[in-house]
């Protein structure tokens, strides 16, 4: 079954993507076909199989706790689309629709 | 014309830049050509011209953007340089430009770039493969001697195969990922692309090794991969998966696989059949893991600290959603939404945890195959040669299914080397066919020697694409 445009829009909202109605209609069948293929994994018997969460056998490596060079703050602030050094400017964070 | 005489194999930087200016308008392999290439220092790669995939951060002298092939990073000027790139520079290589790619390395055709598709030097109407499309095209056309690519599910090996060059995906953790713009962090690896096995070995020697800036980069000894390269692997045993002799393969790919088997037999290798029973499930497991990680990794592109920001956002949510929608192309949007869905409440177990279990089964399959025992597993890099640009853009699932021979390697974290192994004649075109050898973790030296055996016994690597041939007449 294909995801409806409304379902696609809901996913897009979660993904922080403002998609158009045309995109919602187009993505629905494509995403549904891919999910249907992913669903084929459910035909496998996975009883007793542990998820493989780390491909590497290496354990965490600790570096010496010494100060090292950092990236220059001025260069980083200069990349922000809008800034008031030393701050990055964004629209209002609190209020309708603005909060996370 | 021999490979040694071909283009960048012997060209200096000036000649290399001249060739890029001649051919890049046609190929679109480069997003940026550096007006002031890195000054060559003295080292093992002095005299090597190198291109880097534009998802590797590079703070070059001319402050060229690092774009990842995306509108959202069109003006991003990285304040730091990826470890792999820096190591090439320190070894004397001359970096001449940043190559085109599928946006954020998401794609298998090179068509998903905000900077337009790269064209295959062997047939300009066809894809070069992807996502390291520009790196493959640039090396194949002789624009540079070596290029760096990244391989998350085949993005070095598949374009190498389609462009008739060598491409090496290292063991996960062999090469630092510091400065590689992340797609799927548990799968991504940086690796070299070159016309010969020897050049790939030289580059791998330089870029490998632990890095304090990447905690997943392993503390494994790094041999000189060029040493003993010409010494054949003694008692070499090649495993050929039953699943690679697939009737869905293009007939010319099937012929090239059998020919490669015969070549190895003629070199004294034993060839046995091995079983990778979960091969067909690799695609589903790979895309679940990769897209889950991608949706998380790409959350950082939000229009706040760097990159594209939408005009006149009404609030913070609007800023995020419109900046990302305007900045990401359709394939990236599709993958982010799929990843978001997979990780959402109620679906995480069904998709993500299931995929991680299948990932373990796939790793077990490879371990069992190597325990047969065999030294390396041989199979094609893709089921068919390069197809026409635009042929499959509206069917993403069909596109994903083409990755059947490459994704398992990434899920299992293994090294693999792709090399040219034949041609398919389609109309007036000769389209390269690639094979790959897959080895146990950390066995790149043995893989390189086994690939060198094939290269020494064949002439595929000496062939030059038509656009590069006419350029040198």
3D structure, described in words:
The complex is a heterodimer of chains A (100) and B (473). Chain A is mainly alpha-helical. Chain A has a domain of 39 residues. In chain A, strand 1 and strand 2 form a beta hairpin. In chain A, helix 1 crosses helix 2. Chain A is flat. The model of chain A has no long low-confidence stretch (mean pLDDT 89). Chain B has an eleven-stranded mixed beta sheet, sandwiched between helices. Helix content of chain B is 35%, strand content 14%. With 473 residues, chain B is α/β, with parallel strands linked by helices. In chain B, helix 2 links the parallel strand 2 and strand 3. Chain B has a domain of 288 residues: Amidase signature (AS) domain (Amidase signature (AS) enzymes), CATH 3.90.1300.10. At the A-B interface, helix 1 and helix 2 of A face helix 7, helix 8, helix 9, helix 10 and helix 11 of B.
What layout of secondary structure does this protein have?
The complex is a heterodimer of chains A (100) and B (473).
Chain A: H1 5-14, H2 21-38, H3 73-78, E1 83-84, E2 87-88
Antiparallel strand pairs in A: 1-2
Helix pairs in contact in A: 1-2
Chain B: H1 13-27, E1 30-33, E2 49-53, H2 83-90, E3 94-99, H3 133-140, E4 146-151, H4 157-163, E5 166-169, E6 189-194, H5 197-207, E7 237-241, H6 251-266, E8 270-274, H7 279-297, H8 316-327, H9 330-343, H10 348-370, E9 376-380, H11 396-401, H12 407-412, E10 416-426, E11 429-438, H13 444-457, H14 466-472
Parallel strand pairs in B: 2-3, 2-4, 7-8, 7-9
Antiparallel strand pairs in B: 1-3, 4-6, 5-6, 5-10, 9-11, 10-11
């Amino acid at each position: 079954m294909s995801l409806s445009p409304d379902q696609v829009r809901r996913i897009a909202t979660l993904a922080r993507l403002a998609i158009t109605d045309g995109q919602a209609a187009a993505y629905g069948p494509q995403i549904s076909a891919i999910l249907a293929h992913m669903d084929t994994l459910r035909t496998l018997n996975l009883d007793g199989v542990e998820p493989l969460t780390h491909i590497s056998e290496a354990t965490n490596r600790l570096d010496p706790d010494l100060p090292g060079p950092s990236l220059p703050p001025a260069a980083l602030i200069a990349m922000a689309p809008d800034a008031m050094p030393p701050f990055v400017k964004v629209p209002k964070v609190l209020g309708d629709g603005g909060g996370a | 014309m021999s490979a040694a005489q071909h283009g960048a194999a012997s060209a200096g930087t000036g000649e290399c830049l001249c060739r890029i200016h001649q051919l890049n308008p046609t190929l679109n392999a480069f997003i940026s050509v550096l007006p002031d290439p890195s000054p060559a220092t003295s080292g093992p790669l002095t005299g090597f011209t190198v291109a880097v995939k534009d998802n590797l951060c590079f703070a070059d002298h001319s402050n060229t953007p690092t774009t990842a092939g995306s509108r959202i990073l069109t003006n991003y000027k990285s304040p730091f340089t990826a470890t792999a790139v820096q190591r090439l520079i320190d070894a004397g290589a001359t970096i001449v430009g940043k190559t085109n790619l599928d946006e954020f390395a998401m794609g298998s055709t090179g068509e998903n770039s905000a900077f337009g598709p790269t064209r295959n030097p062997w047939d300009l109407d066809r894809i070069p493969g992807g996502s390291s499309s520009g790196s493959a095209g640039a090396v194949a056309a002789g624009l540079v001697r070596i290029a760096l690519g990244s391989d998350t599910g085949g993005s070095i090996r598949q374009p190498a195969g389609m462009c008739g060059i060598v491409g090496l995906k290292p063991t996960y953790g062999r090469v630092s990922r510091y400065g590689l713009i992340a797609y799927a962090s548990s799968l991504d690896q940086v690796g070299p692309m070159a016309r010969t096995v020897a050049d790939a070995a030289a580059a791998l020697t330089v870029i490998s090794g632990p890095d304090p800036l990447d905690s997943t980069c392993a503390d494994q000894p790094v041999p000189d991969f060029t040493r003993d390269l010409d010494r054949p692997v003694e008692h070499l045993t090649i495993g050929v998966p039953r699943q690679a002799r697939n009737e869905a393969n293009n007939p010319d790919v099937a012929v090239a696989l059998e020919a490669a088997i015969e070549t190895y037999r003629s070199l004294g290798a034993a060839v046995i059949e091995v079983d990778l029973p979960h091969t067909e499930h690799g695609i589903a497991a790979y895309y679940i893991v990769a897209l889950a990680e991608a949706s998380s990794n790409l959350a950082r592109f939000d229009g706040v600290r760097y990159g594209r920001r939408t005009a006149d956002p009404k609030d913070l949510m609007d800023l995020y959603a419109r900046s990302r929608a305007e900045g990401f192309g359709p394939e990236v949007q599709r993958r982010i939404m799929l990843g978001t869905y997979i990780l959402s409440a109620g679906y995480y177990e069904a998709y993500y945890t299931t995929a991680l279990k299948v990932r373990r089964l796939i790793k077990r399959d490879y371990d069992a195959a190597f325990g047969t025992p065999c030294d390396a597993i041989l199979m094609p890099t893709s089921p068919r040669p390069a197809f026409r640009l635009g042929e499959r853009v509206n069917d993403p699932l069909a596109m994903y299914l083409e990755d059947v021979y490459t994704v398992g390697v990434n899920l299992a974290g293994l090294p693999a080397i792709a090399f040219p192994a034949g041609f398919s004649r389609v109309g007036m075109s000769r389209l390269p066919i690639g094979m790959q050898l897959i080895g146990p973790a950390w066995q790149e030296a043995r893989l390189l020697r086994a690939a060198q055996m094939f290269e020494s016994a064949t002439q595929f690597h000496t062939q030059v694409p038509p656009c590069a041939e006419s350029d040198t007449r």
